[in-house]
Amino acid sequence: MNQIERMKELIDILNKASKAYYAEDREIMSNYEYDALYDELVALEKETNTTLAGSPTVTVGYEAVDELPKERHESPMLSLAKTKEREELRDWLQGKEAMLSWKLDGLTIVLTYSGGKLLKAVTRGNGEVGEVITNNAKTFVNLPLQIPFKGELILRGEAVITYSDFEKINAQIPETEAKYKNPRNLCSGSVRQLNNEITAKRKVRFVAFSLVTCKEIEAMEGQMPDFENSREKQFEFLQKQGFEVVESKIVKEDTILEAIEYFANKIETYDVPSDGLVLAYCDLEYGKSLGRTSKFPRDSIAFKWADEIRETILKEIEWSPSRTGLINPVAIFEPVELEGTTVSRASVHNISIMKGLELGIGDKITVYKANMIIPQIAENLTRSGVKDIPEYCPACGGKTHIQKVNEVEVLTCTNAECQAKKIKAFTLFVSRDALNIDGLSEATLEKFIGKGFIHSFSDMFHLDRYKDEITRMEGFGEKSYRNLMDSIEKARITTLPKLIYGLGITGIGLANAKVICKYYDYDIEAMKKAEKEELSEIDGIGEVLGAAFSDYFKKEENLENLDKLLKELEIEKQPANEANQNLTGLVFVITGSVEHFANRNEIKELIEERGGKVTGSVTSKTSYLINNDITSNSGKNKKAKELEIPIISEEDFLKML
Q: 96 catalytic, yes or no?
């Protein structure tokens, strides 16, 4: 392949990666790989003195998507020249004073204010044209909608989601496959929304990093701030207007290395995603006089963290089945110290990446942490080649199949009944309202199922067979293992409604399970033989749920699994005080905060124990709405008043009991 052909190939690869990252919020290669290919392209362009159309060295960012209005920027937004060498930053100063600040990893936004009010917000887009997201920007948690300065103000900054908020949002998503990969992807998807209600829930922040334009208008003549030709004064002005401004330090040649070290140490605990630093001259006029290249301004430069790379040996490829049917490769290697922590595994993502690295067991590889956080394989030094892609799924033993998805090769399990695909069922079984096995999170269940430890519910009570393997797993140790075993032992004592709910019968929640158990006087044998006609006559069950319950116990496999499970459990007898059924036939809705109970769920359980039912919305069938704020204008209160349904407080409810 000659140089021009290689350049064409690199342009195609880099543009696909850039489009995936910026426009589609997904990653098809690591930053390390992208930078290496980009640098190779730059070198070839210099060597051949040729730049081809579409080269990422002369284009910037992503194209705006069609769903949002587009607008051309008043002045183009350029990328920055970059370096990973600290000394190169010092040399770049050329004796001048400059400002060193975080290079934040979010979505760049341009804000325009006029008359003291936010006029518009536009994304960076492709540097020339961006997307108008004004309504979304108004929901950013720290953005001033009105400022003291009444002239025209244009500034740039980064929309970001902190790591702590990112983790909280991900924690609310039970499905591993649905969780967001990183704060940048979540932020980009949140900001570029058609519905700003979604943006508001994501706790997006705006951090200013550049003042573009500051003009006075006739009505405010003589009130222009004097920036004294100083970038630092611009930052102080933006802070006075109420903007959160990126953290920075003023540096000279003799202090810049110390300042870089400060940021390098802080990034380990810094809550805002950052992929490097930016250095910009303090003297605004001097910076302006330097002009720009076709792509880069000359008054500033980006510094990307030089990845700490360690050499190690690949010990094995662990194949991890998931609920989507994908079987994902994970590289297990000899432990190494990276950025202050010990790492021994890294996701390889798919077979295409494995083949690109020619990854084989025993290979000498180099590993790093992308953005100093996520372990990745940088290079394979020995490239022995991909071997032993499993022909059978490690979770169920079903046949595997390699298929192409969006031009990427992935390994899938062909068995529709694969346990890994039923991860939701296992997750429900161990949840709080079911068997309540603390320590078996969805992620842990996926690992155990993938290793073949769990095939049915009863297997969870025999995980002690795999003590050695579990204690050696990442995130586990002797203490975690012992805590898990203790939790499993506690789960052996349960109630019949919780067990029935935990089986995951379609449509049968805990409340329905309690009703059915009570109807059959807690006789599991009678419940196994229940016919849908009889079940449908039970108040609150009906024909659909009755059929689902009956059909479940008609399957021999389900009966066998339940019999195995019952041998592991001790079913508590229902306490005698449940005989008081003074709420039978009543339907309640609970809203607002509670005072006499730990939470609304506690009230719900009490109502169901007394024979009542709890629903989520007020309808003509509702008997009472429980709300301590009886005078509230909430939707449920309005609906209850409209339907003439009594609104009662907790104290009123307790009197009813």
A: no
